[in-house]
Write a structure and sequence with these properties.
Blueprint: H1 2-7, H2 13-23, E1 51-58, H3 64-73, E2 78-81, H4 89-93, E3 97-99, H5 105-109, H6 116-123, H7 142-161, E4 186-188, H8 215-228, E5 231-233, E6 237-245, E7 248-258, E8 261-273, H9 282-288, H10 310-317, E9 322-323, H11 326-329, E10 336-337, E11 341-342, H12 360-363, E12 368-369, E13 377-379, H13 410-414, H14 423-427, E14 442-446, H15 447-453, E15 469-472, H16 475-481, H17 493-509, E16 529-533, E17 537-538, E18 544-545, E19 552-554, E20 560-566, H18 579-594
Parallel strand pairs: 1-2, 1-8, 2-5, 8-20
Antiparallel strand pairs: 3-4, 6-7, 7-8, 9-18, 10-17, 11-12, 13-14, 14-16, 15-16, 19-20
Helix pairs in contact: 3-8, 3-18, 6-7, 7-18, 16-17
The protein binds flavin-adenine dinucleotide.
């Protein structure tokens, strides 16, 4: 069966044109007979197909590769198109912390009692709220969560069977956000021997089996996909999905652009979208949150791969609906994060690019990792502090956060001590000039801070040429030097002088009378003085295309768009950080797409 399908995978342009001509202009090229099967006929546009497969998967990330492997192993011919020069997506840059529960063999080995029902109950518990009052799970789509809960433990065993090695010691709670309060579920894929995308080198052999990394998830899956015969077309960016009529009929295939050429790739059974979300697309993300203007340019996972919303936009163009929009703006988890490094554009706390990385020419700097936020102040575009620099971003639920925990009890929220957790909101508040966006946030510090933190304040640690790092001998001069693309108004030097003088007085007094920073420790006094980019980072997409339990995409009437599937960050209805939902939904989509009739 599978060999038979493979023979039919690539057909010449001439064959296609000939067959299409025979079919007549009113008939789609999908009327081509498949070997061993009766020809299926469908109405639609005349398309000159360049390639074909039973299933076309868009994106070789945490959703796409599992989907492709499952479909291929079910006997389908599979083509994966990937926009990047390599597989992996955000998943390969990730920490490899994967919340897979519901009764895995690892949980049983560790004596942890979990089940699909407990997982479902956890991920739909209305009563779990964060200290700021935001609920993690209340707006999850029950149908989608039930499918996840039922497929979660099998997905873990599937990963193991496909070569993913997990570190000893799990499950624990490390790296999880919104993964359920009842029991630990977090597993960690071991980095092993593959060169990391962050450094271009493998880890020290002594720690390869004990360090969690997305590399240890995606390279084994790539190997499994290639071994199974999945065709992966790198540097092929999907730009359009074909449907028989603009808002009706089956999905027929896609357009992929590669090095200036456009290819039409026919999908005889289905197209699976695994394009990884939309937080890199300024206009798209601003539909959810108008504050997220252009200066939020340090999307985590970039410059390895983008989340440009292309999957969502292509699907919406043929009638798809969005879903679960609250999950994008709810103030929990990691949708928007405080930076972990400063002085560079790509400053997500868990991702540092080092020279040697294949994308270091794009990242341009490693950034300065902040060990102690007492070593600096943070100011907005006009040189004013806005919050306690030591405060953190939004929190999220994890096993044991609420104690005692009674599922669905009103006491879970009542017993939570209120803490507004407003660092991100203050940073995004702006300067009151009637414009959207908080503008750049700058870390201001002095020569003593550089010594305390042991920073190297020059390239490649910081991005001077890109305008993400400035130095000067006086505070006044420093403010005047801050000129870059996103600094839309000059920073008044006098403002910055006043801010620094006031903060230094707080250090003398031992009290931050403006923002309650606990006992401000260090004055900013010894030149040179520095301004380093410290603007918040956009990270997760948690709202996307409307899907059902089978991961079929639905339209504005709630009807399935035949032949179109989606999972991971491009799918909506499920508020959880990252990999587990992408992997599970990839598996679900691959399985159901492979069961579709070949047209
Ligand atoms: C630094 C970092 C650390 C993280 N750590 C963790 C963690 O420890 N645990 C966790 O659970 N989650 C983590 N995550 C989140 C997790 O990596 C993502 O949620 C997950 O990878 C999403 O899977 P996906 O398949 O939706 O997207 P991705 O894995 O990003 O894959 C999408 C793929 O689609 C490709 N693509 C996009 N558009 C197109 C197009 N038009 N045509 C063709 N290809 C396209 C992209 O290039 C990409 O390769 C982390 C993310 C980052 C950035």
């Amino acid at each position: 069966m599978s060999m038979e399908r493979r023979k039919n995978d690539k057909i010449s342009r001439r064959q296609f044109l000939e067959r299409t001509a025979m079919a007549g202009t009113a008939m789609v090229a999908a009327s081509v007979a498949t070997q061993g099967r009766p020809a299926a006929r469908a109405r639609g546009p005349l398309i000159k197909w360049d390639r074909e497969a039973d299933i076309v998967v868009i994106g070789a990330g945490a959703t796409g590769l599992p989907a492709a492997i499952v479909a291929r192993e079910a006997g389908a011919n599979v083509i994966v198109v990937e926009a990047n020069f390599d597989i992996g997506g955000h998943a390969i840059t990730s920490g490899g912390n994967i919340p897979l529960g519901g009764g895995t063999s690892a949980q049983r080995k560790a004596g942890i009692k979990d089940s699909p029902d407990l997982l479902f109950q956890d991920l739909t518990d209305w009563s779990v709220v964060q200290p700021n009052g935001f609920p993690d799970y209340r707006y999850n789509d029950r149908e989608i969560i039930r499918a996840f809960a039922d497929n979660c433990a099998p997905a873990f065993e599937w990963l193991v069977a496909h070569g993913v090695i997990f570190t000893e010691g799990g499950p624990d709670t490390w790296g999880g956000t919104s993964v359920g309060n009842s029991v630990p579920r977090e597993m960690h894929s071991a980095a092993m021997h593959w060169p990391t995308v962050q450094t271009g080198k493998p880890l020290d052999p002594a720690v390869q089996a004990t360090t969690s990394s997305g590399n240890g998830l995606m390279r084994p899956l790539e190997a499994a996909a290639r071994k199974a015969g999945v065709k992966i077309l790198l540097e092929h960016r999907m730009t359009r999905i074909y449907r028989e009529a603009p808002n009706a009929g089956r999905v027929l295939g896609i357009v992929a652009e590669t090095r200036g050429a456009k290819l039409s790739i026919r999908a005889k059974s289905a197209v699976i979208i695994g394009t990884g979300g939309s937080t890199g697309n300024v206009n798209f993300r601003r539909m959810f949150d108008p504050r997220l203007t252009e200066e939020y340019c340090g999307l985590s996972g970039m410059p390895w791969s983008d989340q440009d919303g292309s999957g969502e936009i292509a699907a919406m163009a043929i009638g798809a609906s969005l879903w679960g929009l609250y999950n994008q703006t709810g103030e929990f988890g990691t949708n928007i994060t405080k930076p972990g490094t400063i002085g560079c554009q790509y400053n997500y706390c868990n991702l540092q690019w080092l020279p040697g990385s294949p994308v270091f020419n794009l990242a341009r700097a490693t950034g300065l990792r902040v060990a102690d936020w007492q070593d600096l102040i943070l100011v907005n575009m006009i040189g004013r502090r806005f919050y306690d620099e030591c405060a953190d971003q939004y929190t999220a639920n994890n096993a044991g956060q609420i104690e005692p925990y009674v599922p669905g009890s009103y006491l879970n929220a009542k017993n939570m001590r209120y803490d507004p957790s407003n660092f991100i909101n203050a940073a995004l508040a702006g300067i009151g000039d009637g414009k959207n966006g908080g503008g750049p946030i700058w870390a201001i510090f002095d020569g003593d801070a550089v010594a305390r933190e042991r920073w190297i304040s020059k390239p490649p640690s910081v991005d001077v040429d890109g305008g993400f790092f400035f130095a000067a001998q006086t505070i006044r001069e420093l403010a005047a030097r801050i000129v870059m693309k996103y600094q839309r108004v000059p920073m008044p030097p006098r403002n910055l002088e006043e801010t620094v003088a006031r903060y230094n007085a707080f250090v003398d007094e031992g009290e931050d009378r403006d923002f309650g920073k606990p006992a401000p420790k260090h004055k900013i006094a010894r030149p040179p003085f520095y301004a380093a980019w410290a603007t918040p980072v956009v990270h997760d997409t948690r709202a996307g295309l409307r899907i059902n339990a089978k991961c079929q995409v639905q339209d504005m009437s709630g009807q399935v768009i035949p032949g179109l599937y989606c999972g991971g960050e491009s799918a909506g209805g499920f508020s959880q950080h990252g990999l587990a939902r992408a992997i599970c939904q990839g598996i679900i989509a691959g399985r159901n797409a492979a069961a579709e009739k070949v047209m």
